[in-house]
Amino acid sequence: MLLGEPLRVGRHELRNRVVSPPMERNYGTADGRLTGLYTDYLRARAAGGAALVFTEATFVRADGRGRSRQLGAHGEHVIPGLRALAEAVHAEGALLGVELNHAGRVADPAVSGFQPVAPSPVPFRGRRPRELGTAEIAEIVAAFGAAARRCARAGVDVLEVHGAHGYLIHQFLSPRTNRRTDRYADPVLFLAEVLDRVRREAPAATVFLRLSAFEGVPEGLGVEETLALTGRLPLDLVDLLDISAGCYEAGEWMVQPGEVPHGVLAPYAARFRTLGKPIGVAGRITTGAAAEEVLRSGPADLVAVGRGQHADPEWTKTVLAGSDPRPCIGCNQGCIDALHTQQPIWCLANPATGRPATAARPGPRRTVVVVGAGIAGLAAARAAALAGDDVTVLEAEAVIGGEWRLAASLPAKPEFGRLLDWYAAEMGRLAVRVRLSTRADDETIAALAPDVVVLATGAAGLLPPIPGATGDRVVDLREWLRHPRPVADGEVVTVWGADRAGVAVADAAATAGHRVLLLASGGELAPEAGPREKVLMVRRLTENPAVEIRFGTTLEAIDGERLLLGHDGRRRWLVSPGPVVVSQGTYEPVRTLNAFG
């Protein structure tokens, strides 16, 4: 595989073409230092075969900080932790990279304690930044240089200058955020000065430059404009162009949802070949096949596999061995939207990600019975089998997956099925017996003589009593997904409940061509879901003329084809023929295992 071939870039040789790129993780300390969790995380990706592992967007000055647990290179106190990280990564045969950044106008003053600064006072999310004076711009250039010098002293191999995603450097590049009339009205001047200072302060380092090929918003930079600006830079100071896309106002391009094709940014990266520099590219490269195709078709020399390695730290070794790693499902929940909570990020596909490593369980081999082959039951069965236990899974349905399989049927979750396929393969590899169409009664369990019984049967949908509801017109969304009935012409699919599940089902019904009425008790669609998870679903629903969304509305009663809706203390009837799909949460049903429960 071309993916496994070494490549020399700048001052260093990479052992293969896989990079674990900069990803913010909320694993740092309040003063910007590394933690043991962070070191263990990157060490695992290095041990998993990646050629180069990056920290994250690492702030060079305090007013450029965006998150409370973000890493910094802004003071001497960070050097010991970086040095220990470099030693750990090098011991695993990989190189260490740090991405140098200043957030500019998108910095959060509640986190940094400073008013945000920017090339021009263009507001962001209602916050007006302070325009930088020319003397202060020189100070920030010096801050980039000082941060580079600290990293070099700590043994960092690769420094990436972050010129993408709407951060400060990108703000100077873009005409929508740079409205200056002095010499920094030249959009490339600030970045050119930063590159020069970084190179002078860390002459032994390899230097990457990260760019958004396009911003993805009106009046923002497109590919042609970005390419022209890049061509004006002193590229002799740059060893590789690392191509991404988007900005905070178009976050779906920064981190793409699972609906987006693999390798989506490769065609844009190919445009930068004309500049004569090695190219790296990100953008939904989560499978070995996608990574190999990007390299062989020519757009890039290195592939950034961020979320793929977040889901499976041994992604590189597994792919190079010709096997399938645990898949990233593109959910954007634990790795991206969790950042906004200021809590450590996690992974929906891998429950071990973001947790401290645990030692192997000592003791004799046990007999374990797992009741339920949903995603939790399969994860428990795999963990027990890896610990050396003899494992049997009992599943009442004829297929594995439970509610996860229902989610995998939705248009917004096309990658979810890949995780079930992987678990099915793991059950076979680990000799876990999966007995389908088998109810876990006392007799069945007793015959297996287990030492441990794991109950992983999940919850049932909550179906509140609705006056006037008769027949099968009102149905919990899980039952609707299991046994959808035809929707006749003229009928409307009413979805009562606009949580993430209700929104996803409404989106599926609308995608299938049905008219949809979505009743939301609050004022937001899927309020518990983050912006990157729901962005495409919400956009489709709000832009579809066949979809009606009623906020602040409850369902009070049903009378034939009429629904009694409550809104602002008033109630009125609405004619809405067709099924009523309910998404009102779940409850834990009473389950009895007399001998083992």
TrEMBL record:
Query: Which parts of the sequence belong to the FAD/NAD(P)-binding domain?
Result: 367-569
Do you know which InterPro entries this protein is assigned to? Aldolase_TIM (IPR013785), FAD/NAD-bd_sf (IPR036188), FAD/NAD-binding_dom (IPR023753), NADH:flavin_oxidoreductase (IPR051793), OxRdtase_FMN_N (IPR001155)
Q: Which Pfam families match?
A: Oxidored_FMN, Pyr_redox_2
Stored Gene3D superfamilies: Aldolase class I, FAD/NAD(P)-binding domain, NAD(P)-binding Rossmann-like Domain
Q: Which UniProt keywords apply?
A: Flavoprotein, FMN, Iron, Iron-sulfur, Metal-binding, Oxidoreductase
Q: Which residues form the NADH:flavin oxidoreductase/NADH oxidase N-terminal domain?
A: 5-319
Its required cofactor(s), as named, are: FMN; [4Fe-4S] cluster
Q: Which domain of life is it from?
A: Bacteria
According to the record, the segments passing through the membrane are none
The record, for CDD domains, names: OYE_like_FMN_family
Which family is this sequence assigned to? In the N-terminal section; belongs to the NADH:flavin oxidoreductase/NADH oxidase family.
* Protein name per UniProt: Uncharacterized protein
Naturally occurring in which organism (per UniProt): Paractinoplanes durhamensis
